[in-house]
Amino acid sequence: MPRTTEYITKAQIGCLYATARSLGIDNEDVHAAIHAMTGRSSVKQLTARQAAYVIDRLKSQVQPKQTDISRHLTTETAWKIRQLQEQLGWTDERLEGFLGKRFGVARMAWLDMPIARKVIEGMKAIAARETDKEVNRERTAGLDS
């Protein structure tokens, strides 16, 4: 007799979304993560085994309760990152590329405070280098006149 595939249970669906919510991950990002981990485009297409794998991966990202508040990205920090993004003239895609390449984080919403501080310092350094380049160009242009 052929083995039947057991699909995701209602309890697993609830656990999956509750875990994602505790990490601040919205539904769109949940589906993107599921697709990246399993190749499936819908939660209901997951097998019970795939669902368990996704849930375990998400749960591994949950921090202990006593440190959650101090580690989450604050509104002020997110604002500072957006301010630097505007100063640098970066699009959202450029910012996400920078976060992914330098810090291994695909979205700003997934940053925790220690990483966010490093992001800000990195963006400040880039802005300072660009300012230095502009000053040097102006000096060079002034000498040519």
The poorly predicted ranges are: none
What percent of residues are in strands? under 5%
Number of domains: 2
Order of helices and strands: HHHHHHH
Biggest sheet overview: none
Helical percent range?
over 70%
Mean pLDDT: 86
Number of strands: 0
Could you give the distance between the termini?
88 Å
Structural class of the secondary structure composition? mainly alpha
**What is the helix tally?**
7
* Global shape: elongated
Cα Rg: 21 Å
Word description of this protein:
The chain is elongated and about 80 Å long. It has two domains: 10-62, no CATH class; 71-144. The protein has helices at 10-22, 27-38, 48-59, 65-71, 75-88, 92-103, 113-144. Helix 1 packs parallel to helix 3 (48-59) and helix 5 (75-88) packs parallel to helix 7. Helix content is 70%, strand content 0%. With 145 residues, the protein is an all-alpha fold.
List keywords for this structure.
145 residues; single chain; 70% helix; elongated; mainly alpha; 7 helices
Q: What is this structure, in a nutshell?
A:
The protein has 145 residues and is mainly alpha-helical. 70% of the residues lie in helices and 0% in strands. The model has no long low-confidence stretch (mean pLDDT 86).
